[in-house]
Design a protein that fits this description.
By secondary structure, the protein is mostly helical. Helices cover 83% and strands 0% of the residues. The protein folds into 2 domains: 211 residues, no CATH class; 201 residues, no CATH class.
Length: 445
């Protein structure tokens, strides 16, 4: 039922655009900085030898997958904190955020124990040479010590995003990357009295950098909580509630990652080495452009949660339309950029003419799908901000089931990318637009 609050127009159109940019730009820069951790590690370890670099690649795949599955800690916390903020309950918003941080500690503890216990088994799944597997296991046991700090970073980042602050996480990410480079150089090669630890030195350096990031972000959140008189101790009902809310988002993430794995599997099974190489390059470029669109999704999460928390359904609908247009136009821009770059992009990464020839048409397909991706990312963010995780989990499963046969039956690299663009991205677009056009997700208060 509409209330006096819901009839307010506290997000004028011009202000909405400014708020979108104020949230999205720092979020984009923070997202771009995340891959720099592994890139810096790879650059430093690459000078030790091929075996060490390969081991880093294997171990890095395991740890990034484990952390990636926990992205719900950021998304769910953003939505719940923003909703409390919109309701005018800043103390409650920070208390909700503290519960999310404790949930991150709990999950991180479990993942750390399991990861360190089964490190050798996990890297053994890749079937690499014994020397690579041994080095990767050594690296991974140490790297898993950074799980709790990394998950705390996700949770505290979600808290700050929910409070409409994306600049502080950007500062933390930039500082973390700088410390990571310094610690890696010092511990890998040995500076002064420090011994040269080689590959495991890189693991220790990264863990220390992640710990400093977590401590910095926790300090900011704790200071805000104390200022508002919010409790810092874990509230078990609140932690359980955060955990229940996280389950659908975890299922959503699993369906997305499963769909991406099916895409790669289809390319590997239906093509040669050049097709696989071209696909890896195409997907790397797609993933980079996804940062642009994901930053809009982050803005959508925070602004939607705030509007619904205030009970302002009119502003929520207007915000959704505005964010969707932002997604479309950003998709058009990134699509045009990718299309213009498609003839020459391959030459930046490889001298293999066959790979370059196969990459160009795949990039054109990816470019055509960018406006669709813009809508998908934005509406995904809107529904996450609304706390509509159950629908997202259900829709993700349906899209996965529909997309899988299209991907497996596709012929050639371009065929797989067409299936990805039409069946996967198109399927996600249909399910999200259908939901957004209705009102079931617009639960106020």
């Amino acid at each position: 039922m509409a209330t006096e609050t819901s009839r307010r127009r506290w997000i004028p159109l011009g202000r909405t655009d400014r708020e979108i940019l104020a949230l999205a730009i720092p979020a984009f820069l923070a997202l771009v900085s995340e891959p720099l951790f592994l890139l810096a590690d790879a650059s430093i370890i690459g000078h030790l030898g091929t075996t060490e670099l390969a081991a880093l690649g294997v171990a890095g795949s395991v740890i990034t997958t484990a952390i990636g599955l926990c992205i719900f800690l950021a998304y769910g916390t953003t939505a719940s904190v923003a909703r409390k903020l919109g309701a005018g309950d800043l103390r409650g918003a920070l208390a909700q955020g503290i519960d999310g941080v404790w949930l991150a500690v709990l999950i991180g503890t479990v993942v750390t124990v399991l990861g360190m216990t089964f490190a050798s088994d996990l890297v053994g799944l890749f079937g690499a040479a014994d020397a690579i597997t041994s080095d990767a296991a050594d690296y991974l046991r140490i790297a898993f010590l950074g799980t709790i700090p990394l998950l705390v970073v996700l949770a505290t980042t979600g808290v700050l995003r929910g409070l409409l602050d994306t600049r502080t996480p950007l500062i933390a990410a930039a500082a973390g990357n700088l410390f990571n480079i310094i610690f890696n150089l010092a511990l890998v090669h040995g500076w002064g009295p420090l011994p040269a630890l080689g590959l495991v030195g890189s693991a220790w350096g990264t863990v220390l950098a992640q710990l400093l990031m977590a401590l910095g972000l926790v300090a900011v959140v704790v200071r805000g909580a104390r200022r508002q008189g919010a409790p810092l101790s874990p509230d078990l009902p609140g932690v359980r509630a955060a955990g229940r809310a996280a389950v659908p988002l975890l299922v959503r993430t699993l369906t997305l990652r499963a769909s991406l794995l099916v895409t790669t599997y289809a390319v590997v099974q239906g093509g040669d080495d050049t097709s696989v190489a071209a696909h890896n390059l195409a997907f790397a470029l797609w993933s980079f452009l996804a940062f642009v669109l994901d930053s809009l999704a982050i803005a959508a999460q925070a602004l939607t949660g705030r509007a619904l928390g205030a009970g302002d359904l009119d502003s929520t609908r207007r915000l959704t339309r505005r964010m969707t247009w932002w997604g479309i136009w950003c998709g058009v821009v990134t699509g045009l950029a990718l299309a213009l770059a498609s003839p020459v992009a391959g030459h930046l990464f490889t001298n293999d003419a066959a790979v370059v020839d196969k990459l160009a048409p795949a990039l054109l397909v990816a470019a055509l799908a960018q406006p669709i991706a813009g809508v998908v990312f934005v509406l995904d963010g809107v529904l996450i901000g609304a706390g509509d995780g159950n629908y997202l989990a259900w829709a993700g499963g349906v899209v996965f089931l529909v997309y899988t046969p299209f991907a497996l039956l596709a012929t050639g690299l371009v065929g797989v990318w067409l299936a990805f663009a039409v069946a996967f991205m198109g399927g996600r677009c249909v399910t999200l637009v259908h939901r957004a056009r209705g009102t079931s997700w617009m639960v106020s208060g």
